[in-house]
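Aim 2 progress. For EamA family transporter, the working sequence is reproduced below.
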Amino acid sequence: MLYVLLAATCSVLVSVLLKVARKRGIDTAQAITWNYLSASVLCFFLLTPPLASLQHADAPWVPLLALAVILPSLFLVLAASVRAAGIVRTDIAQRLSLLLSLAAAFLFFGEQTVPLKLAGLALGLLAVVGILIRPQGQQASTPDGQRMWPALLTVWVGFALVDVLLKRIAAAGTPFAASLQVSFVLAFVGMVVWQGLRVVQGKTQLSARNLLAGLLLGLINFGNIIFYVMAHRALPGQPSVIFASMNIGVVVLGTLVGVIGFGEKLSWLNRAAIGLAIVSIGLIAMAPKA
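Predicted structure tokens for this construct:
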């Protein structure tokens, strides 16, 4: 389970980096741009994506292009959510996106409903509501406070949409590594064009600090992916255990880091919602395959 712990740690570290970026004078948009350069190079050398699989006429280019646009856009929203809502709520919203992915599997992929999954879905939705409620005494009148709900809901829906697109791409016969490689490269190209426009318009200046922060962000971001893949390879017969351990691990670690490391406040309702989130993930993981 070491790989699962490393994957969960990398996932939470991404949120930590996004949390401290502004205070360290880092342009988040630039860092996210260089993140895709780092992730693309690591994906190419560590996962050796079979890019020849995309040369046939039925290659799923529409969902791949959609993924290339959504991934960096969602990363920007993730950064805004970490600043506005904190690491705890953002990481849990990201992990509970599996509820929408599950609903999409029932509606669009013909997956059969299973009582345990339905119970997990119901508890998870309650957890989402409980996590979104800000403790009394915290001001929502600040610009960041006002952006909390939209940012969290976008993270929740956005990561589910990414999962659905990946399922569509996999259903077309495209290997996971190839889809990642193409999406990362296209996302990098699009972000470079945008940063170029920002520089021309005088909205930002390229700097070594942003480059280094972005390369580190990409290393950690890809670490989350590669360690998760390695966990599945190490325990090929236990995908549900890996799934549950990863998601629950991120929820627990994110909560500890947010509360202890950054002093984020949680009400009794928020804490109960975190417990519901963990139970929800466990039920979904334990549900038998339809």
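Residues 208-234 form the longest helix (27 residues). This observation will guide construct design in the next reporting period.
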